[in-house]
Every structure is written in structure tokens, then in C-alpha cells.
Amino acid sequence: MSDFLLESIRAIVVVVIFFYLWWVGRKENIGKQQGWLFIMSGFGLILFGMLIDITDNFPSLGKYVVIGHTEIQAFLEKVVGYLVGFLLLSIGFWKWIPTVIALKKTKLELQESFDKLEERVKKRTHDLQRERDMFIQGPVITFTWKTLKTGQWNMSLRMLLKF
User: Fold this and answer.
1) How far apart, in whole angstroms, are the C-alpha atoms of residue 13 and residue 28?
2) What are phi and psi of 141, to 5 degrees?
3) Considering just the CA atoms, what is the radius of gyration of the chain in Å?
């Protein structure tokens, strides 16, 4: 009975992992990334092998060809479930990990570009602030070209002309 309990706990853990990966894959649209289908197929076959493995703990299931303690069950569990499952899982990670590395590099490059742009914005803001301060401090009159009338007088000019 302890084999049944341990195999069941192991299968429950893999069920949780499988459905979590399936949910995240649909939510974040990861399924289009290279290797993801292999990873999901591998986990699916490993889960299949674990579920088939549980059936050999019940001798009464031996009358069925596919489940119970039979040679076909052992083949499905060991070869189809575990061997092909782990093979697909390893192929999936082999194809998927370069995508993850490329995404990490792209994220770092984007952060560097953002930092450079942020520095340029700060410098330009400082330059504009300095020009604005110079304009406010110096005596200036602005005109509108349509009417050739005096538009705005800044505070320095008003103080210079005393009005």
C-alpha cells in the first residue's frame, strides 16, 4: 500500500506541474515559443507513465490488457511514458532554453537603451531649464508678427523700464 501512496503523491505532483504549465502557457502565450510543445508533450507522457504505474498495484486489474500488472502495461509505463516522455522533455528544453537566453539578452539591451534615453531626457530637460532661466532673466519683448504689436514683456524688462 505504501507503493500506491507514493506513486499517487508523485502523480498528483506531476498533475499539478502539468496543469500549471498548461495554464501559464495559455495565459502568457508561451505555446508559440520553440520547444514548448515538446515540453508539454514530455510532461504529458511522464504523467501518463505515472498513472499507468499506479495500476500495477491492483492485481484485479490484471485481466485488462493495458492496465494492471501486465507486459503491455510495463511497456507503456517504461518506454512510452517515461523514456519517450523524458526524451521529449529534454528536446523541448534543448530548443526552448536558447529562446529564454535571447529574451534575457534583449531585456538587458532594452534596459540599457532605456537608461541611455533617460539620461538624454535629463540632459535635455536641464538644457531647456537653463535656456528658460536665461530668457526670464534677460530683458526681452516678444512680438506677434501678424499685428506687429508688443506681445509679452518678461519681468526683467518691466523692472528695467520701471512699469
Assistant:
1) 22
2) -120, 135
3) 35
